[in-house]
Amino acid sequence: MWSIVPIGAICHMPSVLNELGDCCCHRRRTDEININGKCGTTDVRQLQKWVLQHKAHVGLALDGDGDRMVMIDHLGTKVDGDQILYIIAREGLR
User: Fold this and answer.
1) What does DSSP say about strands 69-73 and 78-79: parallel, antiparallel, or unpaired?
2) What is the pTM of this model?
3) Could you tell me if residue 30 is left (phi over 0), alpha (psi between -120 and 50 degrees) or otherwise beta?
């Protein structure tokens, strides 16, 4: 199961990931002043708990406008954007 937690941005990820299997999209209401407060890419603790509790394969957190992403793996480990780019580049060179 995939878990996506977009904050502020419209959730388009489920339509992209549906081919991979189950996908849950969680939106969190914000106070409209600090759209990344205690959630999104700046605070992934809620997503880490959710991924572990639901035994999801991965969790994806997006920032307010959707231009940054942080992944949570199935063990609850945070994988930031730099690490994601490294993984993509490494796999591309194989």
Assistant:
1) antiparallel
2) 0.71
3) beta
At 53-78, the pLDDT tens digits run 888 888 888 776 677 888 899 999 99
DSSP line for 25-68: E------SS-TTTTSGGG--HHHHHHHHHHT-SEEEEE-TTSS-
Which helix H or strand E contains 11, and what residues bound it? none
Give the chain's domain count. Answer: 1
Phi, psi of 84 (to 5 degrees): -65, -45
| Domain span holding position 28 | 2-93
Distance CA 42, CA 56 (A): 21
Question: Which CATH number does the domain housing residue 22 bear?
Answer: 3.40.120.10
